[in-house]
Amino acid sequence: MASLSQGIMAPQQQRHKLSEPQDYPRWNTELIEALRARNLLPYVTASILAPAGDNDSPEYLRWRKNRLTVLLMMKRSLSADMKSKLSNAGWDFGHSRDPKKMYDLIRQITQNGHDNESDTISSPLSPLESNAVVEDLAKEIEVIQQEDSEEDWTAVEVPSKELPPESIQDRVVRVWNDWRDLTAYYDIDGSESRNSRLEEFYRDELADLERQPFETYSSQDDRVDYLLLRNYIRRARRTIELDTARDAKFKAFIEPFATPITAWCEQRRRVEPIDPKALADSLTATEKLVHQAQDHINHNASRYSRATGHRAARRVATLRKKLAETYSFYKDYDPLFDWWVTEPYKRLDAALGNIAGLLREVLVGVKPGDEDTIVGEPIGRDGLLSDLEAEMIPYTPEELLRIAEKEYAWCEAEMVKASQQLGFGTNWRAALEHVKNLYEPPGGYPAFIRSLVDEGAAYVKKHDLVTVPRIAEEAIRMTMIEAERQKVSPFFLGGPTMQMSYPTRDMSHEAKLMSLRGNNRHFGRATAFHEMIPGHHLQIFMGERHHHYRRALFDTPFFVEGWALYWEMVLWERGDFFASAEDKIGSLFWRMHRCARILFSVRFHLGQLDARQCVDLLVDKVGHERATAEGEVRRSLGGEYSPLYQAGYMLGALQLMRLRKEALGSGHGKMREKEFHDRILRANVMPIEMLRALILDKELKKDFKSEWRFYGDGI
Fold first, then answer.
1. What whole-number distance in Å separates Cα of residue 502 and Cα of residue 514?
2. Where is the stretch described as Disordered (predicted)?
């Protein structure tokens, strides 16, 4: 066997030679600690010299043991294959503190014949020869034990270092990813297992968060994140409660067949063995339960609301989809499964499709093949109050309606002024019709919109209103919205990409004219900057680069949409952007539209309007084309957006305007306009009251409760 001191260079000997023999036994603990802290393995393995004297001396033997201990403990002298075998044999971290356990495990592997010639010691700094095998390592251990059988093995104590406590930012990221994984696994909406697991998750996370001493958060950002996370968790728990209450309204006739379907899908998800015959029996029995539910619906339709029918139909669609996934998981891979299950599955799948259609036709009122009727699910006053609390809006739904009416009255008065400038007197609707007919010809619209985007960016840069990074302006992309999607998005959309709606060749003549009029020049000029710079495009660009961890959990339309409409208000107040009467009418049309969004969405969820009446409100009160009004309502009520999303535009903008007055006005005077806007963008998404606390450095306490009535009390 090669000498353990082979391969050590003379200069290293001179540089690292220890002065006294009594120093040698101490190197193991001192240098292990240094090694772990500073990555000094080469120093440990190549520069600690063997003591002078007889190779059988106690000093030499101790050095030999300690050196081998370090090499094994640091796992740098073992091949990948050997590490794998150690792991399979039961190696754990605790062995690294007890050399004898390590050595015994290695000898056990060699005695069992698990080693082979490929199990070489991989480190070039090994004390053994470069081509040494595991048997050589075991022999080295045996020699040491035989030569020093009476002496206890040296136990290497490595001080453990506790991990630093989880930062609030890391906690936010972890909660988001935990939620994402849980909802991906428990993926059947409305199921008992999903609801109970999420409730447990939220309960535990909230309890752990509440245990954190709020006063230890030294920065305002940390305190804000704490309160935002707590608010998110509380809202999520309330949402489960409200959803469970709504599901209870159809539980009597849906749950009997939903329960066995859910059970089979969850068994597949856990990859537990499925008995094909038992599944076939269950599917056949479940089909009968579906037929019983159909009879119940036909005889008791008057007992259920359209909202209950709509929600029940969605639940059935989810069950049908998950059952199809379960069937696809096994079919073609298990011949016995195909033989037993295929026919019962097809019958049950058809029955689920039939009952979903029955729910839509009998309870919701949508005939088969009808893709144009707009349906939605009102959440009621309690649901609105819960969402308002989560958005930190201390107003009731009724107060929101009064705010919208007051803002609408201002818009209408300004619209009359612009109408008079155009010679239409007080008939602002006639002036609006005039503006609608000032549209770009087919083919010229994209270039026109691009010019408006450039104009908005140039304006805010010229007046030094907000920072516009070069890449944010340089990397703007533009696409067209296909005809079918224009039923939901009749105007253009912004963000990373500008998406434009404009009539296509295959549209009817009436649809083409409505699209042209709804996307006229002055409507476009009023919102191109809203969608891009300084609006959504700049907002998203900055949000992806600053406090980006807030985007997943704390997203809110009051910040996202409020910011874009806020800029419409700022540019209006400046007086030089909307200079012509036509431009003013274009801007006022959209502001009236945002008032109407509050009116129709809040009233819909209060049960005061149905979807068709919402469309009528937009046509009659704002002057929308009916096709564009239908697209707006369909998008708002279709479930893609939160119930308060439409209210978030105007209310969020009003909040930001009030905050602007506080931050820039004589009462504070703490910052310039550009700094104010940059700080908002860098803060990223959150309820505006929390943004206010961050920007104005308001005192925050653990028992924080929303109380900022930004619109005053006289409403």
1. 10
2. 1-21
- Pairwise CA distance, residues 525 & 317, whole Å: 42
User: In the chain, where are the structural domains located?
Assistant: 10-147, 168-247, 251-364, 404-695
Q: What share of residues in the chain are helix, strand, coil (percent, to 5)?
A: 65, 0, 35
Of residues 511 and 528, more confidently modeled: 528
| DSSP label at residue 118 | T
Taking the C-alpha atoms of residue 341 and residue 383, their distance in angstroms, rounded to an integer, is 42
Between vectors from CA 652 to CA 210 and to CA 229, what angle results, nearest 5°? Answer: 15
Separation of alpha carbons 531 and 498, rounded Å: 7
The model's pLDDT over 437-456, given as tens digits with 9 standing for 90+, comes to 998 888 888 888 899 999 99
Alpha-carbon span 576 to 570, nearest angstrom: 11
Tokens of 261: 């379907």
- A 10 A CB-CB count for 259 gives 13
Burial code of 547-566, b = ≥16 C-beta within 10 A, e = fewer? Answer: bebbebbbebbbbbbbbbbb
Of 411, 490, 498, 418, give the one whose Cα is nearest residue 457: 498
Of 681, 647, 674, the closest CA to residue 540 belongs to 681
The two structure tokens encoding residue 337? 């499964």
**Cα 109 to Cα 668: distance, rounded to the nearest angstrom:** 75
Helix (H) or strand (E) holding 555: none
Tokens of 265: 């899908």
Residues in the chain: 715
Q: Which string of DSSP letters, residue by residue, matches 415-469?
A: HHHHHHHTT-TT-HHHHHHHHHT--PPTTSHHHHHHHHHHHHHHHHHHTT-S---
Contact 266, 325 (CB under 8 A): no
3-state secondary structure of 575: coil
Check: pTM over 0.90? Answer yes or no.
no
Residue 499, classed as helix, strand or coil, is strand
Are the CB atoms for 440 and 528 separated by under 8 Å? no
Spatial CB neighbours of 42, under 8 Å, sequence gap ≥ 6: 125
Q: How far apart are CA 131 and CA 287, in angstroms?
A: 69
Tell me what pLDDT residue 495 has. 76
Q: Is the torsion defined by CA of 623, 626, 628, 631 positive or negative?
A: positive
Task: Write the CB contacts of 508 (distance below 8 Å, at least 6 apart in sequence).
Answer: none
Residue for token pair 């002024």: 417
- Cα separation, 503 vs 487, in Å, equals 11
Contact 191, 199 (CB under 8 A): no
**Residue 460 tokens, joined:** 């805010």
Q: Is 681 helix (H, G, I), strand (E, B) or coil?
A: helix
**Could you say which DSSP state residue 154 is in?**
P
With tokens 């434009």, the residue in question is 500
3-state secondary structure of 133: strand
| Dihedral pair phi/psi, residue 480, rounded to 5° | -100, 145
User: Distance between CA 370 and CA 366 in Å, rounded?
Assistant: 6
Q: In sequence order, what are the beta bridge partners of 499?
A: 479, 493
